[in-house]
Amino acid sequence: MKQIKFLLLAVLISLVSYSNPSFSQAKNQARQHEGFFMRFLLGVGQGKVVIEDVEGSDMEITGTPIGARIQIGGSISENLIVFGEIGGANFSEPTVTWKGNESTMTGNDVSINDYGVGISYYIMPSNIFLSGSLSLSKDRIKTKNNESETQTEATTESGLGFYLSAGKEWWVSDKWALGCAIFAQISNATDKGPTGEYPVKNTVFGIAFSATLD
């Protein structure tokens, strides 16, 4: 909850700091997105991991994951960009619901990691962007044994994932723009256990900071 409040406060600060009409209009009219491109995204949201049909019942893992992502590429025409990306979202001590019982995974983490390619388009001079990418995604669960103080790690097989975002940025220098965005991270994977294979479905929705070098 503290992470969400901090991010919301930071978003408000960025809006106030760069909402001067004359400043943003002059910057946006002077710039187009061409050449090398690099965008950083850091956000927080609400997420769910569903492992289907585990002993006849779906297992749900929910929490407030923190996500980070980097996208690197270049323009193929004015304001149209293709990129490669790597990113993920991490649930720290999420809640598990299974067979009607709910518990907290104390000391354990669940992460969704992906890499892929995407395309982004900027609507100028507003500097609003729409972005989408296709990726390979897998889940990783880190489990801590409190008695032996050892940690084990398990991963799923890779599956298909999507990352969609829309946001607005303000130029803060000749090369850098800062802004905020909403995003959706959706993916599938397969968990191969000793008793069979279990489909895994991941969904994360949230808000993020964006920092773009162009």
Structure description:
The protein is mainly beta and 214 residues long. The chain has one domain (2-213): Beta Barrel (Porin), CATH 2.40.160. Helix content is 12%, strand content 69%. Strands 1-3-4-7-8-10-11-12 form an 8-stranded antiparallel barrel.
In brief:
With 214 residues, this protein is mainly β. It has two helices and twelve strands, in the order ααββββββββββββ.
Low-confidence stretches: 1-28
How far from one another are the termini? 33 Å
CATH class type: Mainly Beta
**SSE ordering:** HHEEEEEEEEEEEE
Q: What's the alpha carbon Rg, rounded to whole Å?
A: 19 Å
Main β-sheet: number of strands, strand sense, barrel status? 8 strands, antiparallel, barrel
Query: What overall geometry do the principal axes of the alpha carbons give?
Result: elongated
Going across the biggest sheet, name each strand in turn: 1-3-4-7-8-10-11-12
